[in-house]
Amino acid sequence: MRDVALFVPCYVDQLSPQVAWDTVDVLERAGCRVHYEADQTCCGQPFLNTGARREAKRLAARHCERFAKHETVVSPSGSCVATVRNRFAELGIDPQGPDAQCRTRTYELAEFLVDELRVETLGARFPHRVAVLQSCHGLRDLGLAPGSEQGPDAPETRDAVSLLLDKVEGLERVTPDRADDCCGFGGTFAVKYPEVSARMGKSRLAGFSGAEFVVGTDVSCLLHLEGLRARAGKGPRPIHLAQVLAGRAPA
Amino acid sequence: MSARFDERAREVLPDDARVEWHDTAVFDLRRRRDLAVAEVPDWEALRGQAAAIKAHVLDHLDTLLVQFEEAARAAGARVHWAADAKSANQIVSELLAARDVHKVVKSKSMLTEECGLNDALEGRGIEVVDTDLGERIVQLANEPPSHLIVPAIHWSRHEVGELFHRTMGTPAGESDPERLTRLARADLRKHFLEADAAITGANFAVAETGSLVVVTNEGNADLGMSLPGLHIACMGIEKLVPSMSDLPVFLRLLARSATGQPVSVYTSMVTGPRADAELHIVLVDNGRTELLASDAHKRALGCIRCGACLNTCPVYRRAGGHAYDQPIPGPIGAVLAPGVRAKQGGAELAHASSLCGSCTAVCPVGINLHDQLLTWRGEVRTAGPGERIATRMAAWAMGSARRFDLAGRAARSVWGLLGRRFRGNPAEPWLSSRELPAHPGERFRDQWRERRGSADE
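Predict the joint structure of the above. Result:
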């Protein structure tokens, strides 16, 4: 049995606790023992994102301390994991120091299931047409799938999210238009440039026509798209991968 | 902070159909690039090679520039050095004034855009005619280009037809691209024959031979370089490649990345002046040595101006090039702006990106564009006092689980109110186009404690 510490991003803790529970459920189905550090807050990504490096560094160091004793950390957020794995070093968190463990062993949920646990199936059922929202940080910073920039004939490499979804019973995967164009969230970008952000999201949602659900690995992108969908009153519903893998029926 | 980028983007965003076709037209260039890339079996290796050559050039720029200068002089060219835009404009103006030049044909040069050369020359009574078709369109419309290689991509063919009718007296209602091109060509031909001098940029300059390499699809640069007796080439000091054998690497990457063409229509090399003609080369710094001294941003000087990062950029495609209000728009423009400082307001652009990273993934010379945008955000703080205080308070709250909990409770207590639209609502930027998510009521940490007991460690 693998021991896994759950890294619950600050906004997931507050706004989407059910995604964290779905993640717990999926990890337990996959045979993990899930631990939760109640003292965790934020990895510092929003601060780094807005250029507040001093604040980001303080929170990054705090984050590493909280998880230092765990071998494996898993999070249902590609962008937070990308921050921990790719950005902590440039904040001056010593890769050889005691914090290193946390940086090198933090995984996004889909990559953990596919690369580390090599799960075949989780026995979930989700009889719906879904399209994958490849969140940019998961895609290009963590390499969850080959980016479309590699061209249409790129050597077939893995696409962690699609691999997992294709094993879900009853699920039909729809290929979206422009497979990995950004949804327009981008953290503070969505607040600083709300109109451009919304326009990007609108195009993205339109690209998912034919799907009932849009499945993603980042709650932040999903909340942005859900906000747009709710305002427009139409469009496919954005949900997190963990919900599908947990087989939890949409509300 | 003042989000000037959003204000400028607002000039196009309300026109949904326009945003749609702009996005489609620009993304079509990206699709063509993808197809062309797929034809090259060793694309990634080629990118790596280009990045390595550019890194070498930037590490040895001092000696390569001297080598280039000597070779160019030996071939009969005159070489001038300009520390900044003003000095570059002055050198060009004086060269033209000394030869009593009244009319210049210019082929596309982003450097002269950066320096504001057209305005400087026109201020001295010298007529400048841009001869690249797209560049000519924006010149006639009296506006800056909106794209690196397709300067008038924001113009529809109907609008171009109206513009030509108004400015060149072409038949009203003409909107056929081919006929419009012929009309523009006939008009330009006249200017070519009348001009006393030609100004071009340079895509590459070969240190070993002192040669300039100019790449176009229209042949306008070649005509300019062949007709008048004076040719002035303006280029940034970073444009060097060590030797002729390095060129093919870049020529294979450039056209494919830009438009998906295997090679551009015209690739011309100029080594020294023609008989009875003069060739002047103006090497311009304008902030480049400062970027060269920055470990974080040095690589941006490797840019070959292909425009691929613009074509893939989801922000550029929707907001349009003019929203950037810089000589070069898009990701590379935003990366260069705070360093080159051609125009005020460039520092904000580092924030006008969702950091999706697609720019980095397409860049043919491997510039880590989105990483550099993030770095700029930390290096040049553009936040106003309100944002700075809010950031500090938020970081303070996140510094302890208890404070985070209290902040969360406070947010929950006003959540219903935040979801409503009223003046002064801090959630307004979100609400302007999106609904606020419903608050679940209880946070995960509390639920865990209830369901699984206290934290197990």
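Chain B touches chain A through 78 residues (CB under 8 Å).
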